[in-house]
Amino acid sequence: MEVFQVRIHGRGGQGVVTAAEMLAVAAFNEGKYAQAFPSFGSERMGAPVVAFCRIDDQPIRSREPVVKPDALIIQDPTLLHSVDVFSGLAPNGYVLVNSSRSFEELGIADLVRSLPDGHARSLPATDLALAHLGRPIPNAVLLGAFASFTGVIDLASALSAIRERFAGAVSDKNCAAATAGYQALAEGFGAQGLPAQETKAVRQEAATC
């Protein structure tokens, strides 16, 4: 594959940098080259934060910020109209938004309509995080969801990255959150949904975290 570039937008305290790092580790666990780094700026809680991840089958030479992303992960929907989060997005790119609202309600329907079918998805990642972690940190949920609808990484690799990052009960809860994110999109894909036997396998994988 050619280099796949991901830009993650969120706010301080939402685990944006950790999300990029876990995505890179997941890709590395699949034998790919990967890098992850943040855009340095204000580190205040709630301030806008951006992190980047590149994934490739070849060594990655560039260390520049991602200006032409193949995928966007938007961890906080309040950034949609205050930051140019869609800048440079590839015409066939992917968009994943943490929200329970429709794209029409979010005011981005026209933009996502220009993308290929199935390349723009939203899910209430914060709600799922609260249910599984007890904290409003959506990064693990979105990591699982990203694996589900892009296929760039596997769920198993995402869970492995989580286990490397966290330990004990925190690891278990984050694995459950990531699997919930994966399932939320997989079961909502309609014709692209997972076969029943694969869905069962995913749930079994979550149980072993």
CATH first level? Alpha Beta
Strand content: 15-25%
Major beta sheet, specifics?
6 strands, mixed
Low-pLDDT residue spans: 189-209
The CATH topology name reads Pyruvate-ferredoxin Oxidoreductase, domain 3
Fourth-level CATH superfamily: Pyruvate-ferredoxin oxidoreductase, PFOR, domain III
**Count of separate DSSP helical elements:** 8
* Radius of gyration (Å): 16 Å
**N- to C-terminal distance:** 30 Å
- Mean residue pLDDT: 88
CATH architecture: 3-Layer(aba) Sandwich
Number of strands: 6
- Placed side by side, the strands forming the largest sheet appear as 2-3-1-4-5-6
The overall number of domains is 1
- Percentage of residues in helical conformation: 40-55%
What shape does the CA trace take? globular
Query: What is the string of helix and strand elements?
Result: EHEEEEHHEHHHHH
Write a concise keyword list for the protein shown above.
209 residues, alpha/beta, Pyruvate-ferredoxin Oxidoreductase, domain 3, six-stranded mixed β-sheet
Q: Could you please describe the fold and organization of this structure?
A:
Helix 1 (16-29) crosses helix 5, helix 5 crosses helix 7 and helix 7 packs antiparallel against helix 8 (196-207). The protein is of the alpha/beta class and 209 residues long. The protein is globular. It is built from eight helices and six strands. It has a single domain, classed as Pyruvate-ferredoxin oxidoreductase, PFOR, domain III (Pyruvate-ferredoxin Oxidoreductase, domain 3). Helix content is 41%, strand content 17%. It has helices at residues 16-29, 103-106, 109-113, 125-133, 139-150, 155-165, 168-186, 196-207, and strands at residues 4-11, 33-38, 48-56, 71-74, 94-98, 120-123.
